Amino acid sequence: MAKLWQPQSEALYHLSEDATISQFTPRPHPRQAEHPDLVWAIQGSHVVNYLLPRDCPRICIRCDQHTSAADQARFFGLSTAATIIAVEQAWLERIRATTLYAYQFSQAYFEQSDAAAGYWISLSTVTPQALHSIDDLLGQLVGLGVELRIMPNLWRLQQAVAQSTLQFSMIRMRNAQPSSE
Predict the structure, then answer these.
(1) For residue 29, is it left (φ>0), alpha (ψ between -120 and 50) or beta?
(2) b/e string for 136-161 if b means 16 or more Cβ within 10 A?
(3) Cα–Cα–Cα angle for 47, 118, 18, nearest 5°?
(4) pLDDT tens string for the chain (181 positions)?
């Protein structure tokens, strides 16, 4: 079994399938061309949302102070996990085969962009302080206390979560299987 990596909750990370990045140079925002070029990082407390292949569609949910008791019961049921991540079963082999690299940064070069999502940004080129290899993504997620749900299709869950009071992140949904309904 691979050694479990423990992200530091206050450290910042960029996860990639590329182990050869020596510097992170600001790039255009993927959906908003009017924004300045940026380097993106994720706070360690939210890094579990990114412990999957980059293009893998996923739905990540958490409860917070705004989550209703009904939504907590509906989505978390008897689970004791702080985070649940749902992925499509079509991605399972790619998840198993992927090695990720967590580039670690100091907060000194970044400013917080979205506290709820754990996003941080920098307008400058940034050199990572450390590089961590993660070769067992499923084991890593489970080891960090995530409940992982492998589903045939994500769209029914996506619709339900979007209408809930949960804190959520829906990543790369454009790559999800078409809705079965």
Answers:
(1) beta
(2) bbbebbeebebbbeeeebbbebbeeb
(3) 45
(4) 567 899 998 899 999 999 999 999 999 877 777 778 999 999 999 999 999 999 999 999 999 999 999 999 999 999 999 999 999 999 999 999 999 999 999 999 999 999 888 999 999 999 999 999 999 999 999 999 999 999 999 999 999 999 999 999 999 999 999 987 6
8 A C-beta contact, residue 1 and residue 139: yes
> What pTM was computed for the model?
0.92
Residue 121: count other Cβ atoms within 10 Å of its Cβ.
17
User: Are the beta carbons of 83 and 62 closer than 8 angstroms?
Assistant: yes
